[in-house]
Amino acid sequence: QVQLVESGGGLVQPGGSLRLSCAASGGAFSINAMGWYRQAPGKQREWVATITGGSMANYADSVKGRFTISTDNAKNTGYLQMNSLKPEDTAVYYCNAILLRSGLGYDYWGQGTQVTVSS
Question: Does the N terminus or the C terminus of the chain have fewer Cβ atoms within 10 A?
Answer without folding.
Answer: N
